[in-house]
């Protein structure tokens, strides 16, 4: 009880410190006083019309909606592929994005030859309804229902009898994927996960670093002249402190409202615009961020903000955006987006519904409908909490500003099953799906999976510089 109060107090103080830093930076570059110009409004409206108008087929893709049991709707984009593709690939984005993050994959001629391609908007993002809460149970049940629905729908109308299902993810989509690979491995034949930490592995690693340092400090107290021991104890915590500095924004997002929402809205959504510049690769060698062009700004904002009011069709039909999407259009939906950070998704308990248990069991029992190859691990096989029970390919950028490499990779092999890999890009950042090198690697990995995983993944990537398969089980 006392420790929880102390932790909450320290978290608020650290969040306030980071909020002060953000506000100062916005003041320095003048963004805090920036007002949206008429031209910016017009450019955004054009971009939203391009990507979100339900009467359009942006990039040749088709707008679709999946209706959950409670009537809420998830928006997704569909590419039925060419040459009667036999597989199904589902792309799941993270914060603060939408299906648009995956536009180059969803329209890839190479991938569409072998798979139906689906890009979904997470609950509360893009064109999807929000949900009542964003804890582990609600989010994982929602995404499991969607994936099961996609398996059933496309399996019935187009997938080959021997086809497989793949889930490709980024950021919070990857946190969800790690949990599904552990707790609902029946959903996919392989999870391809980018730019995220394994929740349980990272948590356990941090605890191990604290325990080790504490033990050394206890010994040092009895031997205070052993300065080497003291240095080692402090050095053991260095990656933890590094991760805390990288996660400063997370503490801001967890501040009490309205401070948490102020962070997203101040300076004409300054923080969101900074993220877009980083995602677009505008970070210069001197550490400064370059500017995006007007069209790039508009398209990036459209990707994060979702549909505008002009895309709202008040018909109440199944083929219209739900009311909650339009209410977010007025404010940008920041307060809903950050709920993924605030409501316990990363480590919260998931008590599966009876329907979910039954439907997952049906996949295991009926091989003719599951279209699955061996996962390489039994569902009830022992391992550390959170161990993945389906094959996983983790793609990680060593220059990712959100994660400390040592904590992200230390001991991760213990959480992976057979036929799993960890691919490390030495010079890549966080938005791997959008980065030039990241896209090349991700497309190769997905295509390798779609083509039957012939040969080692290492061989598929050997022609790429600064890319290595760090773990292959």
Automatic annotation (TrEMBL):
GO terms for molecular function: hydrolase activity. The keyword Cell division does not apply. InterPro entries: AB_hydrolase_1 (IPR000073), AB_hydrolase_fold (IPR029058), Epox_hydrolase-like (IPR000639). Keywords: Hydrolase, Membrane, Transmembrane, Transmembrane helix. The keyword Lipid metabolism does not apply. Pfam families: Abhydrolase_1. Residues 90-202 form the AB hydrolase-1 domain. SUPFAM superfamilies: alpha/beta-Hydrolases. The chain crosses the membrane at residues 12-33. Belongs to the AB hydrolase superfamily. Epoxide hydrolase family. This is Putative alpha/beta fold family hydrolase. It comes from Lepidopterella palustris CBS 459.81. The lineage of its organism: Eukaryota, Fungi, Dikarya, Ascomycota, Pezizomycotina.
């Amino acid at each position: 009880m006392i420790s929880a109060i102390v932790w909450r107090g320290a978290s608020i103080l650290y969040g306030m410190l980071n909020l002060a830093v953000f506000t100062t930076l916005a003041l320095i570059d003048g963004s805090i006083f920036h007002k949206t110009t008429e031209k910016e409004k017009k450019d955004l409206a054009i971009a939203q019309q391009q990507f979100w108008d339900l009467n359009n087929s942006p990039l040749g893709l088709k707008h679709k909606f999946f209706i959950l049991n409670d009537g809420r709707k998830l928006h997704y984009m569909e590419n039925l592929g060419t040459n009667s593709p036999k597989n199904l690939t589902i792309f799941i984005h993270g914060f603060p994005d939408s299906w648009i993050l995956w536009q180059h994959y969803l329209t890839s001629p190479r991938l569409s030859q072998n798979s139906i391609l689906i890009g979904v908007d997470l609950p509360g993002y893009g064109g999807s309804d929000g949900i009542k809460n964003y804890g582990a149970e609600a989010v994982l049940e929602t995404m499991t229902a969607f994936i099961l629905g996609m398996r059933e729908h496309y399996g019935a109308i187009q997938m080959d009898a021997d086809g497989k299902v793949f889930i490709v993810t980024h950021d919070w989509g990857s946190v969800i994927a790690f949990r599904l690979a552990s707790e609902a491995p029946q959903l996919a034949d392989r999870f391809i996960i980018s730019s995220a930490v394994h929740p349980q592995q990272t948590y356990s690693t941090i605890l191990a670093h604290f325990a080790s340092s504490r033990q050394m400090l206890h010994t040092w107290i009895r031997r205070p002249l052993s300065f080497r021991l003291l240095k080692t104890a402090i050095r053991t915590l260095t990656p933890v402190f590094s991760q805390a500095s990288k996660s400063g924004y997370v503490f801001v997002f967890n501040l009490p409202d309205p401070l948490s929402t102020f962070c997203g809205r101040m300076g004409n959504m300054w923080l969101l615009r900074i993220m877009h510049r980083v995602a677009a690769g505008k970070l210069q060698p001197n550490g400064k961020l370059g500017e995006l062009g007007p069209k790039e700004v508009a398209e990036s904002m459209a990707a994060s903000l979702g549909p505008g009011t002009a895309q709202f069709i008040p018909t109440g039909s199944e083929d219209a955006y739900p009311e909650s999407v339009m209410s977010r259009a007025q404010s940008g939906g920041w307060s809903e987006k950050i709920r993924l950070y605030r409501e316990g998704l990363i480590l919260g308990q998931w008590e599966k519904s009876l329907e979910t248990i039954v439907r997952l069991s049906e996949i295991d029992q009926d091989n003719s409908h599951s279209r699955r190859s061996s996962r390489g691990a039994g569902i009830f096989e022992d391992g550390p909490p959170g161990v993945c029970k389906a094959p996983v390919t983790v793609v990680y950028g060593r220059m990712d500003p959100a994660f400390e490499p040592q904590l992200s990779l230390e001991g991760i092999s213990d959480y992976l099953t057979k036929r799993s890999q960890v691919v490390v890009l030495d010079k890549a950042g966080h938005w791997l799906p959008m980065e030039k090198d990241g896209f090349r690697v991700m497309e190769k990995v997905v295509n390798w999976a779609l083509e039957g995983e012939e040969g080692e993944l290492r061989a598929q990537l050997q022609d790429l510089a600064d890319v290595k398969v760090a773990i292959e089980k």
